[in-house]
Amino acid sequence: MVNIVLASGSKNRQKLLRALGISFKMVVSNFAEEKIKEGNFSLRARKIAMAKAKKVAEKEKGLIIACDTYTVLGGKLMEKPKDLSQAKNMLKQLSGKMAVCYTGFCFFNSVKNECVAKTVTSKVFFRKIYKEELDDYVKKFPVMSWAAAYAPSNLYGLGLIKKVIGSLTGLTHGLSIELLIPLLAKQGFKPKPLGI
C-alpha cells in the first residue's frame, strides 16, 4: 500500500482527510510561496501547490497531496493578514462583495514521478458585515492564520457568506475533494465515511 502524505499543516485539510477515513502522514513543506512570481492567479495557486509537493517529495515517498488557497477581490490578492488592523480592513473590503477563492491542488506520486496539478475556483458572495460583528470577529478568531481573514470552515465565517459557486471544499477546507477522490480511487483507495 502506498503512503499518503499531506504536504500541509492545515487543520482543515487534515479534518477533511480524516472524515473520509484516509490514513495519511502530515509533512509541512515550509516552501517560501513568495518565490513564485506569477501574475495569473489560477496558475500561481497551481505552481505553489506543485512546489510544495516537490519539496516534500525530497524527503517522503508516496502519494503527496499539496494545496494552496487564497482569495482575490477586484484583481487584488488577499493572503493572510499581517495584523488585526489589516484583517479588519480585508473583511470591510469583502463586505457585500463577490470574491474569488483559488485553490491550487497537486497530487504527486513521487514513486512513479507522476503529477496531476489543477486549480479550482469558488465565487464567494459575501453579505454585509456589520462593524460590531467585525470587531468581535477579529478578536475572537485566529484571523491572521486565514487567507483574507475569514474561514468558511468556521461556522461564524460561513455565516458571512450568502452564496458560493464552484468548489465547496476548495473554499471551506482548502482541498478540492472533487479532484482528490477520483485520483485516490485510481490508486485503489476508497473513501470511508465512518472516519468522521
Automatic annotation (TrEMBL):
One function term, GO molecular function aspect: nucleoside triphosphate diphosphatase activity
Active site (record annotation): D68
Enzymatic reactions: a ribonucleoside 5'-triphosphate + H2O = a ribonucleoside 5'-phosphate + diphosphate + H(+); a 2'-deoxyribonucleoside 5'-triphosphate + H2O = a 2'-deoxyribonucleoside 5'-phosphate + diphosphate + H(+)
Cofactor: a divalent metal cation
Main location: cytoplasm
EC number of the protein: 3.6.1.9
Enzyme class label: hydrolase
Function, in words: Nucleoside triphosphate pyrophosphatase. May have a dual role in cell division arrest and in preventing the incorporation of modified nucleotides into cellular nucleic acids.
Protein name as catalogued: Nucleoside triphosphate pyrophosphatase
Organism: Candidatus Beckwithbacteria bacterium CG10_big_fil_rev_8_21_14_0_10_34_10
